[in-house]
Each structure stands twice: as structure tokens, then as C-alpha cells.
Fold these 3 entries.
Entry 1:
Amino acid sequence: MGVSGMAGKTLYDKVWDAHLVHQQEDGTVLLYIDRHLVHEVTSPQAFEGLQLAGRQPWRTSSMLAVADHNVPTTDRANGIEDPVSRLQIETLDANCEKFGVTEFKMNDLRQGIVHVIGPEQGATLPGMTVVCGDSHTSTHGAFGALAFGIGTSEVEHVMATQTLLQKKSRNMLISVDGQVGPGVTAKDIVLAIIGKIGTAGGNGYTIEFAGEAIQALSMEGRMSVCNMSIEAGARAGMVAVDRTTIEYLKNRPFSPSKEHWEQAEAAWLDLQSDDDAVFDEIVRIDAASIEPQVSWGTSPEMVTSVNGYVPDPQADEFEAKREGYSRALEYMDLAAATPITEIKLDRVFIGSCTNSRIEDLRAAAAVIKERKVATSIKQALVVPGSGLVKQQAEKEGLDKVFLDAGFEWREPGCSMCLAMNADRLEAGERCASTSNRNFEGRQGQGGRTHLVSPAMAAAAAIAGHFVDVRSF
Amino acid sequence: MKEFTKLTGLAVPLLRANVDTDAIIPKQFLKSIKRSGFGVNLFDEWRYKDAGFPGQDSASRQPNPDFVLNKPRYAGAQVLIAGENFGCGSSREHAVWALDDYGFRTVIAPGFADIFNNNSFKSGLLPVVLDKHIVEQLGEECEAVEGYSLAIDLQEQTVTTPSNEVFKFEVDEFRKHCLLNGFDDIELTLQQRFRIEEYEVKRRQSAPWLFNTSS
């Protein structure tokens, strides 16, 4: 409860307040940053700026670096073929070496997607401020951390000062009430939320995801939900700390030592919104109403149930969105009123910072077991989120399940989520993808992306078209 | 940081909603380790008919004559009139660098994605928010009148049309101050070094585990 006469604090308020270094009269705040995750694409210009100004990083122990966007997912024994990608990764290696930043290099078992390895290592902890030059930094909010993406100028600012100049966002609560049905996953929850509030719905807000259906999720599920906060327009999404959070963090390399564990745990358990906290906006969603989701357009808000239809832009209800919808259907080469289950795929991608963790791979493998990828599918790809995820999956024999079915089993990285490496769609190809963005050209110029959960992607690979995984 | 005070510049309308940073600068160009040179690939997939890749000879490209930036009347535009939620998606500051490198100094839209908005101020590109119907009006006028220029005055927080219609816009005071003076944020922050150090001393006591390194 809050102090008498004052409203209580939200989870966001608490983490924000704990990181105030200074507040100016106009409300601009100097916010302390605990953890700075670094990757090869958005850091070279920041390191260069630091060097040109003759500055040193403020606290290198706050930094953890990894190359993920550009790395090849095929055999890495011969290094990186693309000279431009190679230079970017060599630049990260050189910068980390020069400034003494901990880096998991490409052939380190711990290498992987930055938003997978942070939590996996215990480098993301409750109550922290976590930043990275990547919009999907929102992922780490699953731990009751305040985590958000920044641009390269801010990357340099954090390196040099351990702080950011920020204005506080407003508070939004999204409560997913009740329980989801069988076969409905964290990914379906977050896609349904984005479908409801839109890609700009969270602009200017930090979202707290709450409610029975969120509490019931594993940490990996919560990460998938928070990951896509940015697709709802919010820089940060958060989930309150509970026993699930604390159990996950035990015995991870960067987690608090024995000496500090009890003190940390006590502090973490306070990381939830007070009962009388005030939110600027509250959205309630009935979990039981959520069905497996499939995106049909070129924005994550263009999403519907697997049992739904491609919308008709000419319908009266879509008047305000007609132009955008028409353009999206043209790009996606879809006719209005097509049943989602009649959409045929060319490729399937299971991976990305949204869905490449061990539970995602288990869910996909459970659907695939003893079945074969449809002959009409040109390529079905599984890209684990980290070397450790890959190792665990292999220990469980999941690699064999995928390989026997006709999937390719790759090395960890961002891969076909954004196609900066060699994994990409050709123009006109259609992909069922467990990633987070279905923008035009995202997975390759002219490529067409449908966002789905890992189980739905696996089922689509077997059937060759979308199917309701609940009756598959 | 590059300063912004006043500008009168040729405007170009691109009123689609949700123009994302992948559209502004496609991913293959993010492999560069430089801050400059992105302008030639701004809106690459809309602007050219052939596929773009890093290091290409730009003279060999096939421009898409239907894309608005390729219309001769908009050559040299400095003001982009854009749709809702401009700059959504990835945090890549390369999107701002590409707009800037192309020659844009300001984007006028009914709203911007948060990270893009931040990045713009950091790189001297002024994001101006005006009501949706005003932005649409500017877009229509711009299409109707060849050589349509807008005057943007940051100090006065105004956008003035060729027919002298004036629209006020809101801007964060601190950011306005920094942009008008071209202040270096990092230098400003380092003037408060003692405050950061004080904070760290307290924080190390109250939450020592945050300063652990890997065990």
C-alpha cells in the first residue's frame, strides 16, 4: 500500500524511482542504467564516438556484448563469408577487446541472440534498468526490470555516463484475465493484445502485463509477451516478480552470489504494483476468448484467429484503415475473405528473440514428432536462440525430431527474423514465422511474413498451409 | 549534435500510416560501421525497382518513377510530411541518419514511434507533431502546389505555409533547448558526474548484487 493520502506506485514507478540520479524542473530525468547489452549492428558508431571524444566507458562491468544479427547459422568453421558482415563483427570484437567489455564471441557456446542470452546468463535481474541498441530489449521486462531499446546516440551516452536523459512514460495495465485454452500460447496472447490496441496503442506508455493468464506463464512465455511490447508501440513492457521469476534466476552465472541472494530476493518480491496504484490506461482481455493467432498483413496489428478470414478492406468497419489494408493485401498477395487455413506457405522459420528458447523448441517438436514437412515447403528452418539452448535441445533429442521431419537445424542467431545474414525469403515467397515483425521486406525484399507461435509454425510446416494446432 | 533553429524547405508528402524503420532503411544497409552514406538507400525498396545491397554503384540503380521522392518536382526536399506512427519498429538510428543524409531536416506527422522520436532529437532531425487533419491538409496542399515550401521555426514552435497559415506545435522544453543550441548531451551529462558517482555509492550499498560480475 502507498503512503497514506498518496496513491500507491506501479511496478514501473518503483523501478523508475529507484534509478533517479537527478530530476530537472521540466521533468527530464537522469536515469541510471544497470545493464547495457551490446551487439554488432548498433554499437560501432557509438564506440567510434566514444573514442573520437577521448572518453572511456563509465562501467564496463555493466556491459555484455554478443554478435547475433549478422552471424551465419550454417557451419562457422570457415568464418563469415560476407565481407561486410565480417567487418562489422570484427569491429565488435576489436572494440570489446580494446575497452575491456565481456563478449561472447561467435564460436563461444554461450553466444546467441542478445535477448536470449541476457536472461539465460542471469545478466537480466529484477528491478534493473536494462538497455540495448535494439527495440526488442523490452523482452527483459519479463523479470520486473525496466528494459527498453535505444538508438546509437543513446548507446554512446550510456557507455560514457551510465545514464540516459529520459522523460517518464505513462502507465498502462494490460490484464489478461482467466486462463487460456489448451494450445494457446504466450505468442497468441501478445498477438491478440496487439490486434486489440494496435501498433501505436502503447506509444508513450510502459505496459505492465498482468492477470491470471500472465501469472500462469513460464519466464520464457513472459519474455515472448514483453518482447512484442514494442510492436504495440510501447518501449517497455513489464511483469511483476513472483516465485516463477525467482526460481528461474537461481544458479545462473551472473545471478547474485550466495552472499547477496537473500537480500536480493527480499528486494525483488516487492517488485509489483501496489494495490492502490493508479494506471493512466487499463485494458482487459478475456484469456478464454483468445484463439491461436495468424497475422495476415504487413503490420503486427493485422492479425486474426487461425479460424478467421483475411478481412475485406471495403467493409464499412474498416473505412479508416481501408488504404493501409488494401496496400497490405496487395503486398501479401491475398484476396479478401480468404480463410486463413487456406493460405499456403513456401518456408517456415522457427527462431528469433520472440520464440527460440527451449520451451519454444519443445512445443514445436511435440507437434512435429513422427511427421514430415509437406513436400510443397521449400525450406523449414529451426534456429535456436543460443548455443546453450541448442545444446539442451540436442540433449533432449529435439534436433533429431526436427531433422527427421525435414527441418534444417542451425547455429544460433537472429537469422531469418530480419535477414541480415544469408537466411532470407526470395521475392514473392510466403513464410510462417515465429518472429515479431511482418513488415514489408522484413525477411527479405518482396518476402511475405505471417507471424505465429512455434506450435502453429510447426503444424503449418507439416500441413503446407495454416491449420488450427488444437485439432491437428 | 547538429543544431536546428529555422528552416524554409521544399516539402514532400508520404502520408502512409505506420511507416516502419525497415522501410526507411532496409536491414542490409545496417552492416555499415559508419554514420554517413545512408541517404542513397533511404526508402530503398520503394524507391528502386532493383534489389539494393551495400556497396552498389548508385548510378546503376533503377528508380521507381511512381515513388514520390523520385518525382522531379520534389528533388531537394527538406521537409517530409508523413502519416501516423512514423518510424515504428526497430530502434535503428540509421533511419534518422538516412533521412538526414538524404537532406531532410524535419518530419511532420500526427505521431511518431517513441524510439524514432528520441533518435531524431539526438541526430538533429526535428520531429514535428501536428493534428492529423492539419497534416492531411498540408499533404493535400503540397500535392496541389508545385514548389510548396514550409517554414519551420523551432524557437517559435511554428509551421508556416506558403499562404501564411501558421500552426503551433508542442515540443519538449529541454530537447528544444538542446536542439536550438546543438548541445552535446554527453558533455551536459558529464557535468553532473558527481551526481552519478553519489548515486552509485548509495546503490552499491542498497543493492550490491547489481555490481557483480559473472561468477
Note: The first strand of chain B starts at residue 6 and ends at 14.
Entry 2:
Amino acid sequence: MSAKTLFEKIWEAHVVHEEPGMQTILYIDLHLVHEVTSPQAFEGLRLAGRRVRRPELTVATMDHNVPTTDRSLPIADPVAQKQIETLRRNCQEFGIKLYDLNDPRQGIVHVIGPELGYTQPGMTIVCGDSHTSTHGAFGALAFGIGTSEVEHVLATQCLLQTKPKTMEVRVEGELPPGVTAKDLILYIIGRIGTHGGTGYCIEYTGSTIRSLSMEQRMTVCNMSIEAGARAGMIAPDEKTYEYLRGRPMAPKDFDRAVAQWEKLPTDPGAQYDRSVQFQAQEVVPQVTWGTNPGQVVGVTDVVPDPDSFPDPNDRKAARRALQYMDLEPGTPIEQIRIDRVFIGSCTNSRIEDLREAARVVRGYRVAPGVEAMVVPGSGTVKRQAEQEGLDRIFREAGFQWREAGCSMCLGMNPDVLQPGQRCASTSNRNFEGRQGKGGRTHLVSPAMAAAAAVMGHFVDIRNWEYR
Amino acid sequence: MPLKPFRRHTGVVATLDRVDVDTDQIIPKQFLKRIERTGFGQFLFYDWRYLPDGSENPEFELNRPEFRGASILLTRRNFGCGSSREHAPWALEDYGFRVLIAPSFADIFYNNCFKNGLLPITLSEEQVEELFGRVRRRPGYQLTVDLEQCRLWDQEGLEFAFTVPEFQRHCLLHGLDQIALTLQHEDKILAYERRRGIGA
């Protein structure tokens, strides 16, 4: 047998049918559903008189448009309310397990999937959300799909897919102190570009990746889509198995499952279509300055001059971005003042992220004039944080402590930036208007966001005085 | 759902001269709360297209008189990056676009287009540049796009061949319902599930 990559092994194990002139019919092991990209899919099923083929392989929650304030109050936005009720009704009608708004385990779909043990190595996982790549951290093939594909999976438990190419992103060495998985992935995106991974499934390899915790690996895989790759994955290992052991949905015969999972990692000598390599030592805390995640520099750098880009399209994009962001070339990143701080999103709202941010905040106050909020990724994360007293640290420092949801990562709920406001955000997209029309987003790690909240501007977390 | 078939289309070309246009720009999030699949055209490029007072932004390309009624959008690299929201192709299609031309498209968006009767065509940077030049020089510039022959041309002798994945081309030409196609292989899905003990 020829040497195979992790991706190839999973792909081949899920091929239902192949024939010339047709895309591959690929079996889907886990379908995650949320309120925003599913209503039209369920409606399509109803119109065609189709059923959900495998409701037991389908899990739903509401996360995108839900308020993060008091859940006992009715939802103020009637359109959001209707979308939530629609998911509720659809799950009931088609027999799908729903983690409803009042369920203590409700949360961001990419946080609760792993947390509850649904996400497992070797699986094919899809969701009508581009950050489904998060689940690749477990050695799963996980990618985002559109609503037509959501309907396709609901009806057939399969997808028609063209096999992507494979790309190895190897990172070697130890990340310097203060440099996190978020900085690493922003650095990688900055290097390969926002379309560097288009057409590929990325596998992250190397000693740096191996040394990351499961939550850090999720942060890395989560932003694969920001490099253009639909999926990003990391081979499962002891950390993966230890994370999963004892989770509610983990396999009952766990040792047997592990024996299978151990066969998944890429064989020695297997070929990728493309390989790139980075040194962890070179990574410093990252801050985006523009309106896509590839427009990023180190915290000790300055806002770049658009004329410094060799490509005329990049020059034009940089000019537009600086105008939107209201930034001058040459401005030191550390002099950029902020109005808001958002700690949350499927990229950085897990317990380790909150611990890291709380460690920075402890003993400090949020700077005058700055509004800062923490939105845990799930009810489970929130309770864990409260047991550890993190909520107290945040509240005493002047942060708002919210209920779980996607919140201001995309501002579909009432958590939005006002026009012109500048935000240090642990989320994944700094697109124009992403966090609110006219809002300006700088993507950073949780520790960097916390430090910015305290100082009122970006600072190099490597020099932080922890209290 | 069966698609609107696409064979040949002639229409005015509008340009959007920007790289990395993300789906948040194509259809901002405030319009994703609707549970319908139609009516998104009015919200296409909303934050670029309209000023804060709700009037049209005269600076925005698609608001130019010569681009009114355009059905072919010519743009730059990595169009449709970001979120998987199919609302983006819904909005483009509902606005009146049938063809998109760019040097590259984001993967999820590219897939979503084919499922909605929208044809994304990838051309080289040079070919895209040539088309941008022609649109600039000739207001009301039109292209004819033929999916059967995989060629596009104008009335001045320019002609480019393009490639589209064969299966997507076939589905679009015939307006096929992909779920129905997959369900023709129901026996194989069942056999696969039996082999894995799924649903047992």
C-alpha cells in the first residue's frame, strides 16, 4: 500500500460512489446545524417531500443571532426570534437533537461539538458555517457548506464533492513566551495570503503543532478558511484521545476507537501537493491593521505603507483598507487606541482563552472610555469559568460577562460596534462592517485583547506585568 | 430543487475593481435573519451601495448608469471569500447577475454559485485585465457566454475559452437537482451504511 496522508485516509474511507464525469459521493458522519443557514434547507426538504435521512447524525444549536444578555427576557428582535423559532420547529418536525437557548450546554456550534465529544478523529463533519474547519483539530475532515449543501446532507447524509488538493503547513520549534496559537495562525495567513489555501485541505504538522493543546489546535484549524482553505486538520495523538475520553458523546468502547484513530496520521513518505514551512521562533504577537486577516503585522511593527506592496491590486486594497480603518502608514501599532474589546467567538472563547485573558486582567481595570466584554463560547465554558472565579476577575476589572453565542464576531445579535468605533477582537474576521457597520476590527489573541482593554491601546504582551 | 438551466447568455458587463471581496460585503449580516431564499437582491452590497441616509452611493461602481441592468460581473482575485452564507449567490442572482468572471473565487462561494444557476468563470489575470480595459473604453460593453462550448466573446473579435468542472457544467446546462442525482445512488448509500453499521 502506498503512503497516504491523513486527509486521503479519511476521504477514501468515506467514498460512497465514484464515476467518471460526476463528483464523488462522500458520506458525512456528523452534520451540525444552526439557525441562520438552515431554514431554507428544511423548507427545501418540505417542498420536495423529503425526510432527514439520518437525524441521529445531525445536531443543532442556536448561536449566531442569539442575545448574550439575560436569557429569561424575550428576544427583542422579532426577525431573529422567528429564525430561532423556525429552527426549533424544524428540529421537532424532523427529529433532530437541539441544544436550545435554555439548555445549559448551548453555545457556539464549533465549541459545543468538541466539548460534548461529538467531534472525533477520522470523521467527516460539515456545517453551514465556514468555521467548521475548527473540528479538523481532532484529525477530522471538517468543512463549511452552503445552504443547498445543508439540504443535500439532510436528505442524503452525503455530499457531492471534488477532492481538494493537500497542503502541508509545517511549523517547527517553540513559540516564544506570550505568543499564542492565534498569533501563529495570523502569522501563517499573513505569509501565505487569504487565498493561499484556496483549493487545498491544509494539514498542520511539526513540533510546534504537536506541542499545542487541543484548544489551541482548534484556534489554528478554525482560521484555515481565512487562508482560503475549506478544511484544516491536525493528526490525532495522545492529547486528542485524552481530551475526548469521558466526554458525553465519546465512543463507548473508547480503547477500540483509539486503536482505529491511531491508524489515521499521515504515513511517512506520503506526498502533499504543496508544502510550506515556518519557524515558531519568528512569530511575535500579531495585530491586523486592514480589512482582511492577511493584512497583519507584529505588534512592534508599524502600519505599512500601501506603496510598499509589489502587486498593484494589493496596493489598492491596502489604500482602501487604511482609509476604512482610518489609519496612517507608519503609525506604530502600539499607538493605536481602541474603544471596544471583544473576547469571544469560535476562534477564542474556550476556557484556556478565558484563563489567559483573566491572567492579564487580574488586578487591573479596563481603561477609561473602553467598553470590554467577554462572551464565553458555551454554557459549559461559562460555568467552568465561574467555578474558577474568572468571571469575578473580569467583572472587577470592568468587563461585561455575557451568555454564550457568536455575539460580536459577526454582530448578528444586538452586540455590534457603532460606526467609527475601533475594536480589539479575538474573533476571526476584520472585514469591513463585520462587527457593525463602520466598525473597525483589529484581530488579536485573547491576551493581547485583554492587555489592550487595560491600556486603551495595543501593547506588546511580552512585556506585560502580571499582577 | 431543480436549477434554472444555463446554456448561453449575453449581457452587459459591470466591473467591481477590488480584490478579496468577502461575502460580508456581498450580503451584510443584518439580512441573514430572513428565513426565505428569495428577495435578497435589494440588499446586495448594501453597505457599499447605499449611504447612511438610505440613498444610493454615487461612488459605488454598480450604481453607475452604464452598469444598470448588467448581468455579468467582472471582478478581481478571491471573490466571495469568508463566510459560507449562500445568501451571497442568492443576492447576486436575485439582483440579476448570471455570470461572474474573476481570476479566482473562494471555494465555498464557488460551489454555492453552481447550486443557484450562477456561472463563476475563472480567467487568467491577463484576460481579466483585458476585459477590464474593454469595459472601461466602451460603456455598455457586452459579452456572450456559452457554457456548452465553454467560450465567451464580445462583438469586437475577442474570444476566450474557459473551463468549468465537468459535473457542475453538466448540472447547470440541464438544470439538474443534485439531491435527486445522489438519491439515484440510494442503494450504494445504504450498502455503505450497512458496511459501517450506521442505522443498524
Note: Chain B touches chain A through 55 residues (CB under 8 Å).
Entry 3:
Amino acid sequence: MTDTAVKLSDAAIRRRMVADFWYHFRQNRGAVAGLVVFILLVFAAVFAPVIAPHDPTMQYRDALLVPPVWQEGGRSAYLLGTDAVGRDMLSRLIYGAQYSLFIGIVVVSIAVVGGILIGTLAGFFGGWVDTVIMRVMDVVLAFPSLLLALVLVAVLGPGLLNAMIAIAIVYQPHFARLTRAAVMGEKAREYVTAARVAGAGNLRLMFKTILPNCLAPLIVQATLSFSSAILDAAALGFLGMGAQPPASEWGTMLAEAREFILRAWWVVTFPGLAILISVLAINLMGDGLRDALDPKLKKG
Amino acid sequence: MIRFLLTKLLYLVPTFLGITFVAFGFVRVLPGDPVLLMAGERGLSPERHAELAHQLGYDKPFLMQYLDFLVRLLHGDLGNSLVTKKPVLTEFLALFPATMELGIVAILLATLIGVPVGVLAAIKRGSWFDQVSMTAALVGFSMPIFWWGLLLIIFFSGILQWTPVSGRISLMFFFPPVTGFMLIDSLLSGQKGAFASAFSHLILPSIVLATIPLAVIARQTRSAMLEVMGEDYVRTAKAKGMPYSRVVMVHALRNAMIPVITTIGLQIGVLMAGAILTETIFSWPGIGKWMIDSISRRDYPVVQSGLLLIAAIVMIVNLIVDLTYGLINPRIRHK
């Protein structure tokens, strides 16, 4: 009986927290707009085969560099025009959303899991473990992130998977640092001592007792890293080190379009716009998350 | 202050050693034979291979190789480029001023616009200026700068034909480098139109490179100002009847600048990453383009040493920022 009562109140607390979070998140109009755009993006990625009018790799030889439909010479079959080998821009952009979301999810997952493991170890044990781990993290942080990612890709070989691994490695110290700081702050609190006295082992203390209370800054950082990952992966694609043609990854599309910048503005403009809008939407969401999750900034 | 400086320097030693280790180890984890990679020769006979391995020190134990690497480093020997056969350090020093010029102009642009915008947005919190400028800052922060650069080229170089597409100065002008900074050298050369040419080449790349730091600085200045404006000493100053402009400029801004200066310092890493993209788009002959070219040409000695030099520069700049921080904020120094 008492057991169920405790569970019920847990769920109630969780509902209260979600409601409270949503209340604060909703205050931020930008964040809500960002969320809407992000949902549209997910929708585009998931239903790409249904909504894209053409196959993204199909080359229509009779329709090379067709301008968008509203411009003279545009055709209604290709709403946003075609690229230099006659592929439909709109379809490629829609399929490109799959790449960007996939990149964001993979990079952030690897970086978060790695960073949390390393940061929790460093923060929980302190001493030489902490010193060694944090010095290694300092070394990674000493390199400009894009440069280190480039060199890592040079080592691993160009390609989307390697680009994602490289970016995740470069981002991981940020999560390690945040986790470490949060764990160190929480470690000395009474509830941790209470759990330890009650007989909880180190693993349980680290991941079950302390970690859930350190999540807020990590969630905010994860959102920001999601957008940076999209930007950096697109940059690597643009430099020829990320996704390889004919992938419809937005950065790779830009790299292929570069030579036509003065002849066909649409092949350059749209992929970049897609990157900008996605990144902006996620950053807006991140701002809203920070306001809603950071108790220091909450009003009243 | 001396003590503060020494602690900071001591703290950097393990990080620097770590950087050298990464740069050294990078070639060893590349797939393939390091001798072939570093010598850049094809179809070697076994004798020649052994000779090269000995010459490059690859026949020694790993740790000894690393120590040799460090010793050579301390003598300023960073190896030779496989493509040009010139010492890497010579190439780096020849190209670095171009990147530095671009970086300095970009960071000046970002600071001179970003700080006033942030201050204004903070003291007019909630106004249309605040909303417009902070929206613009968020757009700037989210900008894929390689695309932004292409857009500016389409508009200013393509449609308006105001600016050149690439390079540092028109081919019409030639003068020996004195400072390595094209803006200064073109003035010193006394050639008519040289400065204008250098300036028109520099303007678009520096705007592109300044975009993200500008957005970050404006946002950071605004939030630092908002925090400081809520402090008791600002209220006291206002209550004393001090002119509002003086309260803002003297009492608030000086304290708000402390985190802002850190932010500006942290942008150096952003600038180095941005330089790779900016220099590629505008064919700017700096170290960013040099690095990306070397990576695609598999000129590994250059990649190895370039990585090391760039990380060292970022580290030194961060140290200088830390020291400035200590100078303007005695609380840090005495902690």
C-alpha cells in the first residue's frame, strides 16, 4: 500500500514539473516558434518519401539548372528549380532534413553519453582521476573544434559517419566539464550522504542519485550542440570532408553548387537557407529551454 | 601578479605537452605506413625505406621518437612540407600575417559593433531595438558562414560588382611585404589605389568572419549589462542623482566588461575555425586555407605542425586573456 502511494506521488510530481516547465517554455514566443519549425523539420524528414515530388538523386537531363517556378523559365514540376545535373532542388532539400536530424541525433548521443560517463567519474571520484581526465579534456578543447574535426576526418577518412564521430569527439569535453561541475556541486548535499548511509553503492550514487539532478544544464548544452553539429557537419560537407556526393546533405549540396554561384542563385541560396532555418529554430528552442530549466532565471 | 602569471604558465605545461602528443600521435594513427606518409615518396626499395625510417627516426621506440620530436620542436624544427620542400615554420610565418590581419579586423568589427549594440539593447530592454538586434544576433549566431560568404559574393561581387571575389589585393599592385599586413603595406608602398584595393579585398571576408563573434559579443554584453544594472551600487549611483549616461558608462559598463572580455578572448578559437571556411571561400592566402589544402594534398608534416602551431597560438591568446582578466579584476588575482 505505502509503495503504491509513493509511486503515485512521484508521478504527480513529475506531472507538476512538466506542467511547470511547459508554462515557462510557453512564455518565450521565439522558443515556441522554434519548436514548431523543428516539428515541421522532423515531419519532412520522416515523410520525405511521401512528400518529396521527385527522387532526390534522379537526374532529369532535359531540365538542367531550371530556375524556381516564379522566375522566368521556371517549370511547375520543379518548384524550387533544379541543379546542374537536373535534380529537383525541393526533393533534395526535403531529403536533406533526414541527414541533418540524423547527424544531430548521432553526434549529440555520442557526445552526451561519453561526456556524462567521463564527467561523472571525474566529479565523483575527484583527486588524480579528476586531474588526469580534465587535463585530457583541456587538450581537446585547446584545438579549434572545426580544425580538430577536419584532422580527425583526415585520419579516419572522409565520409558522413567519420565526420559525425569526429564532431562528437570534439564536443564531448563540454559535456564532461558540465557534468563534472554539476556532480561536484551535488556530491556534498545531504541527500547523497543519506543515500550512501543507506548503503547505496558508488554506481547507484553516481547514476541514480546524483545524475538526475544534474540534467538541466546538460539538456540545454545538448540542444545547442545539436545545432552546432548540423552546422559543423555541413561545413565539413562543404569542404568535401563530410557526406559525399550524391548525398543530398545540405553542406555537400552547397559544395557542388559553388561553381554556379554567379549563374544560378537558387542552387546556392536554398540549401544554405535550409541550414540557417534549422539551426535557428533549434537555437531558439535552446534559449527557451534554458529559461524554463534554469531556476536562477525564473521569475518569482 | 607575478605569482598569478607563474601559476597560469605552470598550468599550461601539461596542456601544451598534450597538444604536442596529439600532433605527434596523429601521423601514427593514420592508416598506412608512416614512413611513406611522411616522406611522400612512392615505390620505395626496402633499402631506401630503411634509410628513410632511420632518417625520420621511425626505427626507434615510440617514446624515444616522441622525445626526439619535442627536442626538434624546441629547436624550432617543425619538419618540411612534402609539396614545397620548404620548412613548415617558414611557410607558416609567411602566411600567418594574412590570417592575423583578417582576424584582427574581424574581431575589431565584432567588438566595436557588438558592445554598443549589447549595451543599448540592455538599457532599452524590451524595446523594438532590443528585439530586432537580439533577433539579428540569434540569426548571426546560427549562420552557416560558408553560405553567408557565398551570398555576399553573389550580391556585392556579382550583382553590384563592388568588391573582388578573391585574394588580398589586385594583381596590378606589387610591393615587398614589410609588416605582412596588406592594409599597412599598401599605405607604405605609396602606390595610388593600392590601399583601396587591399581594403576592398578585405571587407567581405572580415564581415563573414566577424558574424558569429559579433552575435556572441552582442548577446553576452546585453546579459552582462542586465545583470550589473540590477546591482545595488548601480541603484545607489542612480539614487545619488548621477547622470544616467555616467551610471551606464562608468558604473555599469566597466563591471559588465569583465565577462565580455573573456567572451571576446574565447572567440579566438571560433575565429581560427571560421578562418578555415572564410579563407577557402575567398581564396584568402592564410593559414586556414593552407591547412585545408595540406589536408587534401596529404601533406602530413604541414598538417601535423600546423595543428600544433594553431593550438599553441590559441593557448597563448587565452593566457593573455586570462592575464588581462586578472589585471582588470583584482578578485581573480588574489583568489
Note: Residues 244-281 of chain B form the longest helix (38 residues).
